[in-house]
Amino acid sequence: QGQEKLSCNPKKENGSHVVLCELGNPMKAGAQITVDMELSVSGLEDMGNAISFHLQLRSKNSLSLSNASVTVTVPVEVQAVMELRGNSMPATLVLPTSWHRVEGSRQPEDHGIKVEHVYELHNKGPSTVSGVSLHLAVPTQLGGRTLLYLLDLGTEGVMNCTDPPGLNADQV
User: Fold this and answer.
1) pLDDT digit string, tens, across residues 24-64
2) Residue 45's domain spans which residues?
3) What letter would DSSP give residue 149?
4) Phi-psi region at 118: left, alpha or beta (left = phi > 0; alpha = psi -120 to 50)
5) What sign does the dihedral 145-114-117-165 (CA atoms) show?
6) Closest residue by Cα to residue 121 from 158, 86, 87
7) pTM of the predicted model, to two decimals?
8) Is residue 122 classed as helix, strand or coil in its secondary structure?
9) Which residues form the Integrin alpha third immunoglobulin-like domain (predicted)?
10) Does any domain span residue 1?
């Protein structure tokens, strides 16, 4: 008939997290109760795409041995907004028309002016993420000629990077 707030107590039982809620004591014979529960669960990032709850109704009535149970599976959807920021130093570069690459040289300045590209991948949340892959395509050739000579690839933090083909091919 009316709405009441339940008194619920979390505890551990047989290695599982259990929430016990008292629905009514004593409860009248033939009573029907509808319960709406809102659960806040953290640490679901590596749980896959669903989480299951085992719900069981236990009666303390010695005349009723019924312990009805049901398993409810709820889909888990991780939400995270990723942001890629990039910067080139210098931001603008113009080679003089008289400049020519020195073939066979191992000096970086003979291959062009150094340009450093820095990329930062940021998670703006609300969830944490793992196993993120970033594939960055850099044009190295234009019309069969070298456009950018990839000299080095560096990272900061805990991550794995795969060197692109042709990285420092002339061992500059």
Assistant:
1) 666 777 777 787 877 777 766 667 788 888 888 777 766 76
2) 7-75
3) -
4) beta
5) positive
6) 86
7) 0.53
8) strand
9) 83-169
10) no
Please give the tally of structural domains in the chain: 2
Q: Render pLDDT for 100-151 as a digit per residue (tens, 0 to 9).
A: 888 888 888 888 888 999 999 899 988 777 778 888 888 888 898 888 888 8
**70 and 82 fall within a common domain:** no
- Within the chain, strands assigned E span 7-13, 16-22, 50-56, 69-75, 80-89, 116-126, 141-142, 145-146
Query: Which residue in this structure is represented by tokens 């009573």?
Result: 31
**What distance in Å separates the CA atoms of residue 72 and residue 54, rounded to the nearest whole number?**
6
User: What tokens does 152 get?
Assistant: 């080095």
Between the alpha carbon of residue 77 and those of residues 45, 47, 98, 127, the distances in Å are 9, 10, 57, 10
C-beta of residue 44 within 8 angstroms of C-beta of residue 76: yes
